[in-house]
Design brief:
The structure holds 2 protein chains of 2 kinds.
Chain A: E1 3-7, E2 11-12, E3 18-25, E4 33-39, E5 46-52, E6 57-59, E7 67-72, E8 77-82, E9 91-99, E10 102-106, E11 110-114
Parallel strand pairs in A: 2-11
Antiparallel strand pairs in A: 1-3, 3-8, 4-5, 4-9, 5-6, 7-8, 9-10, 9-11
Chain B: E1 9-12, E2 18-23, E3 35-40, E4 47-50, E5 64-69, E6 72-77, E7 86-93, E8 99-101, E9 105-109
Parallel strand pairs in B: 1-9
Antiparallel strand pairs in B: 2-6, 3-4, 3-7, 5-6, 7-8, 7-9
Classes of the chains: A mainly beta, B mainly beta.
Chain lengths: 116, 110
């Protein structure tokens, strides 16, 4: 069955770029959409954005100016870049497969702390 | 986009039924049958429980059901069990081709 694994630095300095990668195993990256969701400590889920296997994207309007999500089909990976990180970006970041309008497969999540 | 509106908490006794509401607008819940529900236990990733308003993924108990009327979707859990105690989130596709979550509801099984 399809499995997702997030990876990336657990600590990012303020004003720097938060970068994460999600590796897809056990299935094909096409023809699906792939999404990032985050959860600040003690708070609810926030949708960050998604990328189609062909590369088209959609982002949360509140993050759109700072976010880029890309896909590398040759590596079965998709990535998140969040520029100008602040403490408010500290969260547990999940990657997920988007099948239509719902997320049916989730990674276990990775914690990112933004701090100097 | 604004988060969908869910009650902060609901509770029920074992065996009872509870319903969690999720209210949006004509641009999300009311405009599309792309409402989904997720269960999240502490320290765990969310789990899809309902998709496209009423559909259950394989392996999800038939005690979980979904519905929608107008701008409000609902998740009903019948025959409450201790293991159902968790946080529940609704989500909807929007007219801007984005997704939006509800604020989450903490279910307590008394």
């Amino acid at each position: 069955q399809v499995q997702l694994q997030e990876s990336g630095p657990g600590l990012v300095k303020p004003s720097e770029t938060l970068s994460l990668t999600c590796t897809v195993s056990g299935g094909s990256i096409s023809p699906y959409y792939w999404s990032w969701v985050r959860q600040p400590p003690g708070k609810g889920l926030e949708w960050v954005g998604y990328v189609y296997y062909s590369g088209s994207t959609s982002y949360n309007p509140s993050l759109k100016s700072r976010v880029t999500i890309s896909v590398d089909t040759s590596k079965s990976q998709f990535s998140l870049q969040l520029r100008s990180a602040t403490a408010a970006d500290t969260a547990l970041y999940y990657c997920a497969r988007l099948a239509g309008g719902f997320m049916d497969v989730w990674g276990k999540g990775t914690t990112v702390t933004v701090s100097s | 986009q604004s988060a969908l509106t869910q009650p902060a908490s609901v509770s029920g006794s074992p065996g009872q039924s509870i319903t969690i509401s999720c209210t949006g607008t004509s641009s999300d819940v009311g405009g599309y049958n792309y409402v989904s529900w997720y269960q999240q236990h502490p320290g765990k990733a969310p789990k899809l429980m309902i998709y496209e308003v009423t559909n259950r993924p394989s392996g999800v108990s038939n005690r979980f059901s979904g519905s929608k009327y107008g701008y409000t979707a609902s998740l009903t859990i019948s025959g409450l069990q201790a293991e159902d105690e968790a946080d529940y989130y609704c989500s909807s596709y929007t007219s801007s081709s984005t997704l939006v979550f509800g604020g989450g509801t903490k279910l307590t099984v008394l």
